[in-house]
Request: fold
Amino acid sequence: MALKAPGILIFLLSIILALAVLFTKFFGATVPLLSGETTQFYGLLLAYIILVFGCIMRGL
Reply:
């Protein structure tokens, strides 16, 4: 299986989502839908799944 670098849009979407979760967790920022511990975990999981799909799929 050949992996490639993700597109800039996919990469930025993943980074922005991961940073939103980290700011909510460590700095007390209020981001809608990322207020609980479980939703923060799912937010980080979604960020990495987006990044993995960006590396696996062609044209993303």
